Amino acid sequence: MQQISDYELELMKVIWNNDGSALYAEIVSALSVKGMNWTKNTIITLLSRLIDKGLLKTNKIGHRNRYTAIISADEYQTSQTEHFLHKVYEGNAKGLVSTLIQKDLLSAADYEDLMEHWQNLQRKSNAE
Amino acid sequence: MSYFLKLILSLSLSGTLLVLILLLSRPVYRNRLSKHWQYYIWLVVIVRLLLPITPETSLVGSLIQRVGQIHLSDMTVIQPNEHNSSNSDTIADFSADSAEEKIDSGDIGSTAEPNTPTDNSLYKSTDNSHNVAAALFLIAWLIVGMLLFMRKVTVYQSFVKYLNAGSKPIDDISLLENFGQIIAQNRIRGSIDLYTNSLISSPLLIGFIHPRIILPDADLSGSDFYYTMLHELVHYKRRDMFYKWLVQLTICLHWFNPAVYLMGREINRLCELSCDERVIKTLSEEDRKAYGDTLLNAADTGGSYRDALASVTLNENKELLKGRLEAIMNYRKMTKSIRTAAILFTGILIGAATVLGAYASPAGRTASDAGIYKNVSDSDGNQALDYSIQHENGIYYVLAHGATEADKPISGVTSLYNMLILVRKDSYATFGAWDDYDMQSLVRHISEQCRTRLANGQLTQEDMDIVIAAATEIQQTYLSGSGNVPDRRTYAYRQTASYQSPYIILYGYNLPSSARGSYKNMTVALADGLNIQIYFSEETEKFMSDDKAMSAITSMIRHRLLPKSSSSRPLEALFIVSMEDVGDTDLSSLAEKYYKEERLNYFCAVFVELDSAAQQKYLALAYDDQNISFFASCIDDSSTDTVDHYILKAYEDDRVDFFAVLSGVLDEESRQQWLERCDQDGRTAYRYILSEDDTEDYDAEDNGAEDDFYDKYGTDDYDASSTTNILDLNRITYLL
């Protein structure tokens, strides 16, 4: 997946929050709620860049374009994490997790949750 | 082939002259008229170079034509086995020759052939060799033009590819927003993307569908960025990309013409100058200087890719930059008088472009030059009808709807009659026939036929207009003296059939003297010392020595023909077309036979001998069978009651064709009654059929002709309906 700029990500978030698809007008109002009163050219330009990068597609509804996300927020996060993991930790997930724990980026409660989730997964695979 | 070559050359020549006019008069307008005007005035030249539209006579058109003639005469000298004929005066415009050759077969005669080729073989051989050369030139021209254009397109594509590879989208939101605001200010619809590319030397605008501005780098000062954007957005707004490609196309098509390259350079220069002008128009003196600074700063930026073909760059070279800076400093607003001058100059140039013209299609020209008529407006004068008339062996071919020589039907008609054949692209319709004596009533005669067919749906209104216009023309040409009006006392050839037991004789009288030589004949003495010459067709020659047959013929003449002849209507030159011995077969079964076999002449001969009950039976039969030609022949001798009965029936059954036939035999009183009735019922088609007899103005001055017309068609045992005449005569001519 191609990397996208911060502003492009802002637009993606707006669309994801709108059930994965939005009209131009909806995007404009959602952005202004966040305090980003961009000009039309900027928004359209960023949207078409996202289309070029394969994250969005458009369908014409009358004269208006509906922008639909091709990639969900989850998929995006996964691919970005993988990207990060490979780039920074050379694929070593343990290193990433230990950094998260050591620097208190992961709370004890979060850790417990994860452990439980992990054990559940193991039990399942043993049963099979 | 040579036509296309001439067209291209003439377009190029015309365009070149305009280029020269514009370039040479540049000192006059350069600092006076706006750069905007100077930029767009070239469109006139481009239109002249590309569009093969020309007025009928144009300077370049006739020049090319003359050059063509000289060129041809040169070629005749080169030809090895030619004789001494390099005389260009006798050689016709060779591209028009094929059309002329076709037409010279027979003109009606009022218009003269413009030039007569002296030696046909010479004429053709030079033409062929010329055509081959022309074809080669044409192919060479096309290939070079196409290759050039293809090269331009591929170069452009690779340039775009190169740009895209090195371009990075500008992610700086403040720059994007800055740009977005400029776009909003300039009221530009659609969006434009912004990129940087370190490989280019100056900002440029590229892309037809997804336009984008590419900057050499993003580190522009606020004002530089602003002015750069303003400049590029003017390019975008004016769609300069399209203009540039139009110029490129023109250059490729006229690749052999150095003038178009000069034009291309000039347009490129003016594109930037007028763009600058548009930008500074709204700026203050101060800001103009800042804009000039931007241009200078942009020139400093280094770049490596020089080919900026057909993309819109801010900066081309130093020379141009100097001119642009000067223009910015010298900028003045257009005053009213300058604006008037600009309009005037535009008018002059468009006028020049029109007058210069191009080489016109010879096909369009030959029609008016080469001895055929064309473009006669109809009686109302509000519509030009497009047709041409050719006269061959008594047949007037009216070529309409783009029909050509090749569409003419093959006809075996003799010259006894004139006929009018409307030739369309894939079909034809026959009108007539008439002989020269009928010329005076031709228009009326043809009009009647047209109306009947129009009412039947066999003819469109447009075709009817064409046929009537053509007939009017033929009649006028004939009567204006170019044709030989036959002696009025000489009666026209007529043909009919009679029953003279035990024969049915199909005969004609007043056989034209031109036709007499080809038939065997004998002189028969009649009572009162009257002699008559009788001619026999090949089929009937054998009866010359047959006493029984000869006595039948003589008694037919005595009893049927002589009573009708008079001093004013002499009977002469009887022509026996065919004879059939029917033995003692009774009349009613003969009638039945001929009706079935659709032998109208024979049927008519028998019909008049039948009792009225039998006649009524056949009328009813013909009506029910919709056999209009038989019906028309039969109704002629019927009683008024019968006519009244059928006309009412036709009216109620909505059988307009029968109504038309019947209206011809109505007496005046009934006709008036029917006119009123049609008015009341609002049935205009029927009203039209009836009222045509009101319009007798066209040959009102010639009542004699009118009477004769009815004499012939009304009383000579001959069918009253003109429709039948055609069918009948077609059959006769076939027999002959």
Could you walk me through the main structural features you see in this protein, from its secondary elements to its overall organization?
The complex is a heterodimer of chains A (128) and B (736). Chain A is mainly alpha-helical and 128 residues long. Chain A has two domains: 6-69, Arc Repressor Mutant, subunit A (Orthogonal Bundle); 73-127. Helices cover 64% and strands 12% of the residues of chain A. Chain A has a three-stranded antiparallel sheet with strand order 1-3-2. In chain A, strand 2 and strand 3 form a beta hairpin. The longest helix of chain A has 20 residues, at 108-127. Chain A is elongated and about 55 Å long. Chain B has 736 residues and is of the alpha+beta class. Chain B folds into four domains: 2-106 and 120-146, no CATH class; 167-327, Metalloproteases ("zincins"), catalytic domain (Zincin-like, 2-Layer Sandwich); 367-482, no CATH class; 494-735, no CATH class. Chain B is built from 29 helices and 16 strands. Chain B has a five-stranded mixed sheet with strand order 1-2-4-3-5, with helices on both faces. Chain B has a five-stranded mixed sheet with strand order 12-13-16-15-14. In chain B, strands 8-9-10-11 form a four-stranded mixed sheet. In chain B, strand 6 (376-377) and strand 7 form a beta hairpin. In chain B, helix 26 (668-681) runs antiparallel to helix 27 (684-691). Chain B is elongated and about 125 Å long. At the A-B interface, helix 3 of A face helix 8 of B.
